[in-house]
Design goal:
single chain, 234 residues, alpha/beta, 4-stranded parallel sheet, 12 helices, 8 strands, globular
Length: 234
């Protein structure tokens, strides 16, 4: 993830984010890795502290952006995801992995601890596994990632793209406004204490019923017809 690539990724994520036609974003890759993390040659070629700060700030900004935008972001992981690449997988709302995919945070092996990847990793997997990965730099398999919550699903490699497409098409059939409301509430409540989380979520359920798409979806279900969504949060 060079600075240029990160700037391009951020630009592409934001490009149509306010358009109602944008319903889901899929992050995939061509090549031997899903994402191999930061460009190490770029990091060592930079001497100014401010330039290093800018690189890590942009990376963190992208991770926060993925969870803040109103549409789901799916990682399509067909190969190794290492360091900031593993962070990217942990950050996405969903992650579908090929059985050939692997994951690691090996910064400790080269003298640069994966501190920012740890933020996403520790929020996706049990603490002991997160620290195991961070302190040893060892690789885990797709099945280990699935068992511990780093990815949502694991499929045969040749079925990866088809499965992600199927999931994305299913999301596109749903109300954008309802998904946007639900996604933002999920990430907001997960960091609250239980009582505050229930208060927040209860208020959002009421707000959901005030949208056009809330009652419309329920009526369509009861009347056994397809809903007519307007996708608006107004």
């Amino acid at each position: 993830m060079s600075l240029k690539l990160m700037e391009s990724l951020r630009e592409n994520i934001l490009r149509d984010v306010k358009e109602l036609d944008l319903r889901v974003i899929v992050l995939s890759a061509n090549g031997p890795a899903f994402c191999a993390g930061h460009d190490l040659k770029e990091l060592v070629s930079i001497k100014k502290r401010s330039e290093h700060a800018n690189i890590f700030h942009i990376c963190s900004d992208i991770m926060e952006l993925i969870q803040d935008i109103p549409v789901p972001v799916i990682a399509e992981v067909g190969a190794i995801a290492t360091a900031a690449g593993c962070q990217l997988v942990a950050t996405c709302d969903m992650a579908v992995a090929s059985e050939k995919a692997t994951f690691c945070t090996p910064g400790v092996n080269i003298g640069l601890f994966c501190s920012t990847p740890a933020v996403a990793l520790a929020r996706a997997v049990p603490r002991k596994l997160a620290l195991d990965m961070l302190l040893t730099g060892e690789i885990i398999s797709a099945q280990q990632a699935l068992s511990n919550g780093l990815v949502s699903r694991v499929v045969p490699h040749e079925q990866l793209q088809a499965e992600v497409t199927r999931i994305a098409e299913g999301i596109c059939e749903k109300s954008r406004s309802v998904i946007a409301l639900g996604k933002s509430t999920f990430y907001r409540q997960i960091v609250k204490d239980r009582n505050s989380a229930y208060q927040d979520a209860s208020n959002i359920m009421v707000e959901n019923m005030c949208l056009h798409d809330g009652p419309e979806g329920i009526k369509a279900f009861l009347e056994r017809r397809n809903p007519t969504w307007d996708h608006n949060l107004d």
